[in-house]
Input
Amino acid sequence: MEIVIDRFGSYHHAVSGRLLIDGQHVCDTLEEDVHCLPEGEYALQRNSKLALPYYIRLADVDSGVDSCVDSRVNSRVSFSRGNGIHGWRNHCIIVGECLHLGFLIHSEECYDLLIARIRMQFVRHHAVVVKISRSPDFLEVA
Output
């Protein structure tokens, strides 16, 4: 399964994007600009913590070799619930429906749907790849 996060705008300290699974729009995303992952491909891994069951790690997807030496919890980025720039935890990508830049609604429903789809891929022992890209019409609002 391929998850694509297409970033389309920046508002204050938040970066908004669209989350696509196999080309289909599922939900929108919100990231803190300080903790944004660079554009590229990442592997999604299972986490032993129940609160955030999956995390993204920097990896060479083709070879499966970890290219990030620092494997501390602080270097992991997880999907999470939240409504806006004041509701996130560090190193989290908040999912929901974008009402306007920097604010999400229906976060709980979108998170549950996303985690259910990811869980099914892990049950079937399929790899999950996260690709992060920047939209050509990226909007940057001060």
